[in-house]
Amino acid sequence: MDRVSIIVSHGSLEGVYPALIMANGARMEGIEASLFFTFFGLEPIIERRMDRLQVATVGNPAMHIPTLIGMLPGFATLATSMMKKEMEKLDIPPVREFLQMIHDTGAEIYACKASVDMFHFKKQDFWSGVDDIISVGEFYEKAGDGQIIFT
Amino acid sequence: MDTLEILGKHLAVDKDGNLVNRSDWNEEIARAIAAQEGIGELTDRHWAVIRAMQKAFDRDGDAPSIRRLTNESGVDVKTLYQLFPKGPAKKAAKIAGLPKPKGCI
Description:
Helix content of chain A: 25-40%
Helix content of chain B: 40-55%
CATH superfamily of chain B: DsrC protein, C-terminal domain
Strand content of chain A: 15-25%
Number of domains of chain A: 1
Number of strands of chain A: 5
Oligomer: heterodimer
Order of helices and strands of chain B: EEHHHHH
CATH topology of chain A: Hypothetical Protein Ychn, Chain: A
CATH class of chain A: Alpha Beta
Strand order of the largest sheet of chain B: 1-2
Shape of chain A: globular
CATH topology of chain B: Arc Repressor Mutant, subunit A
Number of domains of chain B: 1
CATH superfamily of chain A: DsrEFH-like
CATH class of chain B: Mainly Alpha
CATH architecture of chain A: 3-Layer(aba) Sandwich
Radius of gyration of chain A: 16 Å
Largest interface: A-B, 15 and 18 residues
Number of helices of chain B: 5
Strand content of chain B: 5-15%
């Protein structure tokens, strides 16, 4: 495999990391990689939000806690800080550092134009590592004959 | 067991093509592997990464993957990819005579 294009469509911490790990992992294997952030998946590339992503504690059966507990104020913050600690042990960096690292490997980072327009974001709302805001057509063009992974 | 012919010797390698016996490794072998991997001439900066990798492996029993390699070698991610295109941790481990790093990050 020569090239992989990974779509990020979720804005929760656990919704974002798999794509980042896969993009970085592709580059480690010498595979070209790009990330395309769409819908709520824009959160990790919005400058003022990227350091504040949280684990979804409600509506997530794999958390093994009752939904009503997950709703308690501060619970998402607690779960997020626990998960971040575990990730640091595994050498998984925080979102901003991870994205910078992935960008430094030569992977491209794109925001989806339709989502940017829908949420009324401006170019200056985005983290500086974002290479471009592109349409779905441009996304396919760049993906070429490579693999596409939707997360 | 697979073998790899380097400098006229048949050396045992694992499924990734990395040397099995560290005792087979020397700088001359490293240069030959680097040439086979398309890395070309090994500069002082390449050697700094290779040495850091060996040091970390001897301490931890696993070759560092990319994030830890930047910390161990003091070489940033961008430069690592310039020195060892197509996967710095994987390539540097091979040239260093170590197994492929197990880490995901």
